[in-house]
Each structure stands twice: as C-alpha cells, then as structure tokens.
Amino acid sequence: MVTTTLEIADVGPAWNALQRRLANAESIAATRSRLVIINGKGGVGKSSLAASFAVTCASIGRKVALVEMDPQGNNAEDLGFLGTELFDNGQAQVDAILHGKPLVPTGSVRENLYVIPGGELLEEIVQELYIQKRAYRDQDDPLARDAWMGMYAAALEDLDEEFDLVILDVAPGYETLQLQALAAGDMVIIPAKSDPSSRKGLRTVARRMVQARLHNPGIAFLGVALFGVNPSAKKVLGNIRDYFEGDLQGIAEVFSTAIRHVEAAAVACRTNGLVPQELAGRASANLEPNTKKSVVNLAMDYRSLAMEILTRIAKVNGAGGSEQ
User: Fold this and answer.
1) In sequence order, what are the beta bridge partners of 225?
2) Quick one: average pLDDT of 152-159?
3) Average pLDDT of 304-320?
4) How many Å apart are CA 51 and CA 259, to the nearest integer?
5) What is the per-residue pLDDT for 231?
6) How many Å apart are CA 268 and CA 282, to the nearest integer?
7) Mind listing the pLDDT tens digit for each residue in 234-281?
8) Average pLDDT across the chain, whole number
9) CB burial class (10 A; 0-12, 13-18, 19+) of residue 239?
10) Whole-angstrom Cα distance, residue 118 to residue 269?
11) Is there a contact between 72 and 169 (Cβ–Cβ < 8 Å)?
12) Which pLDDT score is estimated for 6?
C-alpha cells in the first residue's frame, strides 16, 4: 500500500483547492463564474471566441478576467496589447503556479476587462505539471493521483471575489493544462469546425472532463460552438449539427449560432487588435467595402452567440447544478 501523506503535503494548496471544489460542488453549481473554452485541436476559433466573448461581457458591465492558458499568446494580438507592458509572455502565471504568488492581471485592455496573458513562459509550467503528474501516478488512491491537477484551481481563487467572470482560454495540445483548467473551471464550451479532427478533439475533452469531475462535479458542459461554416448552406449546417449532437449523446447541445468563415475579416480584426464587434463599429476603419461588410456580418454572429452563451449560463446557474 503506497502512503500518500507526504506527497499530498508537497502540493498542499493544490490538494486543498480540489478538496474545496469537491466539498462545495452544490454552491459552485448555483454560482458558476469560471468559463473554460477548450478543444483538443487547434485552429477552431478558441482564442477568437474567448476574446470576443470577454469584450462582450465587459461591455455590458461585467468585470472579466481573461486567463490565456496557451503558450501561443494569441489574445495579445486579438485585443491589441502585444508589445505593450500588459504582455508579460506568461510571467504572471509562472509566478502564481510555480512560485506561489497571487495570480494578478497585468492590467486592463478594455473597461472592465483584465488580462492574464499566455506566452512562451508557460512552457515552464507545462514541464512542471508533467513532473508532478509522473510523481503521483503510482498512488493507490485515485484522488491522490490527481492532486497535482489543482494548481490552477488554487491560483484562481485569488480572482473569484474581484471578478464576475473568469474566462480560461486553454491550449489544445497540452493534456496537463487542459486537466488543470477542467479541474478549476465551472463551465465548458468547445469551439469546433466540421472536420473529423475537431470531432476527435471534442471527444478527447469529454474524456478529460470525466476525470476532472472526480474532483469538480459542479462543472457544466454548456455546448459546442461551430466555427468556419457557411451560414447559407442550411442543409450542410444541419448535417454538421447532427454529427456533433450524436457525439454529445444528450450531455450538451450545439449552439444555434455558427460563426462564419471570412478570412479577410479575421485578418482585419487581428491587424487592428479589435474583435469583430469593435471593428464593425469603427466608422474610421480603413477597410475595403467587401471586408467591412464581412466584419459586420461576423460581428453579428459573435453577438448572437454571446447572447446564447449568457442565456445558457443563466440557465445552468438557475438549475442549481441539476444540468451537468
């Protein structure tokens, strides 16, 4: 029989955070405020959705923290703060996760919207997480084996009282970061495209949610957000929805709003450091007429999807945890 006392003490804050989430599952399920945006595959609209939804929520008066758990650091381009003092390349997360300092945003990029950027320094966290995972894999107690999974759950407690919503934008290629986010989060959205790799990525996340729920039973799967589709191809879009609904097997739904693919609009938004809703409202933006029209249409998609997500959040919180 392998003893667990010493190992658990070594990750005391992480273990304690997981224990609190397990003990407080009922209250968490009534006041969910940590949203995980995640897929096992990259290039599906994850960072774009995280940035756009964060801006929407901030614009309606909610105080939002956007935590990018991704070494790519795309949020800095999406929100226009790459190369400024707000972009720390992931240092704030390294300080919190590896050195036990409070998790503090680097600053505000919009009114009510604060950022904790990703970046290359997150590779240091990934390395440590794999070390922790290997160190605990021989524990007899399955809960003790996963004690390392609570490092972000512990750090995020610093944000709960200050922010109405914490959005975790999670890297696709790192199992350890995804398990950390799912153990710490309250709600999950999976952005996906129609390709087989996206569906495979969805199933990968679903499996990891099962593991995370051992410690975090209050987490709710809000649904799948479709990206890169042609909204005028109704039959094709319907078939895509059917495929994903079959994969979900009743545990969640596909959001009604799909985000269209318009490359010129996406490039224009990132070039200007603005999400589509913002760029569409800039009369001074120097855009070609067709690009301007595409940006406006894209902004409509994001606004509609945001309203669906907010409605779904209100529904699962009102359900008091009955919808999992």
Assistant:
1) 191
2) 96
3) 90
4) 14
5) 67
6) 12
7) 665 666 667 676 666 666 788 999 999 889 999 999 999 999 999 998
8) 88
9) exposed
10) 20
11) no
12) 33
- pTM for this structure? 0.91
Inter-CA distances, 212 with 148, 173, 207, Å: 12, 17, 9
- Integer Cα distance of 252 and 281 in angstroms: 33
- The mean per-residue pLDDT over the stretch 1-8 comes to 37
CB neighbour burial string for 107-146, b if at least 16 within 10 angstroms, e if fewer: eebbebbbbbbbbebbebbbebbeebbeebeebeeebbbb
Closest CA to 110 of 170, 168, 57: 57
Q: Where are the beta strands (DSSP E) in the chain?
A: 34-37, 64-69, 107-110, 113-116, 165-170, 187-192, 220-229, 253-254, 259-260
Q: How many Å apart are CA 280 and CA 145, to the nearest integer?
A: 49
Measured CA to CA, the distance from residue 146 to residue 149 in angstroms comes to: 5
Structure confidence by residue, pLDDT tens digits, 15-74: 899 999 999 998 888 899 999 999 877 788 899 999 999 999 999 999 999 999 999 999
Please tell me the least confidently modeled range out of 45-54, 137-146, 227-236.
Answer: 227-236
Comparing CA positions, the residue from 169, 171, 191, 172 lying closest to residue 68 is 169
What is the DSSP annotation of 262-324?
-HHHHHHHHHHT--HHHHHT-TT----HHHHHHHHHHHHHHHHHHHHHHHHHHHHHHTTT---
Tell me which residue of 6, 62, 70 sits closest to 43, measured CA to CA: 70
Polymer length in residues for the chain: 324
Contact present, 153 and 179 (Cβ < 8 Å): no
Ranges of beta strands (E only) in 76-235 are 107-110, 113-116, 165-170, 187-192, 220-229
Q: Is the dihedral of CA 115, 120, 124, 130 positive or negative?
A: positive
